[in-house]
Amino acid sequence: MDLHDAYVLLNRSAGELSTRFQRVPGSQILLRYVKSSYQNDPVRSVVELCLFLFAVRYLLAPRYSTTQKGAVELTEEEIDELVEDWTPEPLVPGLTEVEQAENEKRPVIVGPTGPKVKLSNGRTVNNFASYNFFNFVSNELLKDRAVQTLRNYGAGACGPPNFYGTQDVHMDTERDIAKFLGMPACIIYAQAFSTISSVVPAFSKRGDIIVADKAVNFAIQKGLQISRSTIRWYEHNDMEDLERVLEQVKKDMARKPLTRRFIVTEGLFENIGDIVDLPAIIELKQRYKYRLILDESYSFGVLGRTGRGVTEHQNVDPQSVEMLVGSLAHGICSGGGFCAGSPEVVDHQRISSSAYVFSAALPAMLAVTTSETLKLLEGNPQVLTTLRENIRAFRTQMDRCEYVECTSALDNPVCIFILKRDGLEGRIFDNEEKVLMDIVDEALANGVMISRVKHIHETQGTKPFGWQCVPSFKACITIGHTKKEVEKAGSVTRQAVGKVMARLKK
Amino acid sequence: MENCDALPPRLSAGTARYIQYHTVKIIAGAWTIHVVLIIALKIFYDTMPGVSQETSWTLTNISYMAGSYLMFHWVQGIPFEFNAGAYDNLNMWEQIDNGDQYTPTKKFLLTVPIVLFLMSTHYTHYDLTYFIINCLAVLAVVIPKLPSSHRMRVGLFSVPEE
């Protein structure tokens, strides 16, 4: 009886449901559609039904973001607790033992800089720690011209080059540098460091490929980092490895869209002091269709018969270097930097190189000093010979030292010395930097100011994998010293090294 | 059209509001154009002599699916580059609504091919050959639209990029 009742109820409600359904507008069309679509083909109908149900499910699903994954919902208490627990890491890591000692012993120069400087403790020492290779710092003519320009133009340019910052002297200087180098055009920047770190990202963007030497200096590393390009490293100055990397890139990119490709390297390496093999790089870059960005910060004004840089030194046509970047703050003793290249390369930077667009133009007096300095260099090429004689004199003294070796190129006035691995004779020391610092202090005590090569902290740059700078110290040779003084400085440094090494336990 | 959704991540409030206002207008247009295009395609194939109703529906279906596959799932990047290549490896479907899933636009764009498919099978009178062709076409555009296909790259004869 119960069963019968339930059956009747079901029948009635089903009938009611169907009448109600028929009253809904459009239900006839749906029924007709379902009836006609069935067509004795259940498989196809199932497919259609599945698709329909999928569409309904898709339409009903809630929206979610694919970018903000794994965000955990926290209650107010939990947030408070986390905030309570959190102790901020120091923005700057604490000083290491070496850094602390360095801070205490750092020599302070009183008065103007030059070949001989007065320290705050009253002693006068020979300065072998400035990039004052041609002693332009003490040049009275340059000083006069700078003062004269200061009176006419004022101290700063007071605006970015594109907004009232460019003055006639800037354009003259650009022309002078381009003429000096034998390049079609040139652009000057207000700061040496930001020149290369702005030139690289001006040309190379995300997805482009940069092949760079593992030993490039910190400014270049910053540029590579900012450019967000894909960076491949090759072993320092190893042309076979460069070729291997280029071949690898060629293979990897064979079926992909064409991108811009650059080789980035230095003329004279800041960290090691050796010289680039430019003819080999030019050959490879032409074979593999790359552009070359060459940082001549340390070689401009220094290398070559007349100081035109590494291109002159290795007899390479400067125009085969696409972007020739240099510094006016090192050998030229002025300020700022430049990038020379074709008019297209230069004009591109005028509106898309951040350091040129967003910082005030080079002060007029520095621009004028640059032009005057180049004139001086062109007029007296014998200063280069004198410089090289001084370098040789210093290095002859240092060559007699059994504990250190010089990694710099012969013509490089920045002589970089590392401790000889085999010359250590089993001397055990835990901190090489500390030993080098003792050497520097010992030399200073004897009236010769040299300095350690200071490397930037590992985490701050885009360090290539597996590359480590060897701790080193450097002596910067200048023609402001006589040959005798340089020889004496060399022997003082040698004795300082010997003394420190003798102090170390066998 | 959907490029307006692939904007650089940080905007000022004013700019964001301005873009939102215009995006609503653009989205309305972007939705309508699908329906308009389908009707236009149908009329175009109907006017061609010697094409039966069945073939006309199937052709309309295939053309729309092919076109939308090309536009949404084949072409990568954006036409006017000012984001330093941030969207270079994303196709247009993945750029819509900053990659969010189940957004109104995506729901609409998924429903359109399914409805078009159901209509075309209906009007081809459930002929098995037409059904298979239409079904394969609709699967080709529905599968890449699934949330699980997001940023997925399949290479048939080559190694996929990502």
TrEMBL record, chain A:
GO terms for cellular component: endoplasmic reticulum; membrane. One of its GO terms (molecular function) is pyridoxal phosphate binding. Pathway: Lipid metabolism; sphingolipid metabolism; Sphingolipid metabolism. One of its GO terms (biological process) is ceramide biosynthetic process. Keywords: Acyltransferase, Lipid metabolism, Pyridoxal phosphate, Sphingolipid metabolism, Transferase. Residues 135-488 form the Aminotransferase class I/classII large domain. It comes from the Eukaryota. Its cofactor is pyridoxal 5'-phosphate. The keyword Lipid metabolism applies. Belongs to the class-II pyridoxal-phosphate-dependent aminotransferase family. This is serine C-palmitoyltransferase. It comes from Tuber magnatum.
UniProtKB/TrEMBL annotation, chain B:
Its main location: membrane. One of its GO terms (cellular component) is endoplasmic reticulum membrane. It is found in: Membrane. The chain crosses the membrane at residues 26-45, 128-146. It holds the Pfam family ORMDL. It is a multi-pass membrane protein. It comes from the Eukaryota. InterPro entries: ORMDL. Keywords: Membrane, Transmembrane, Transmembrane helix. This is Orm1 type endoplasmic reticulum protein. It comes from Tuber magnatum.
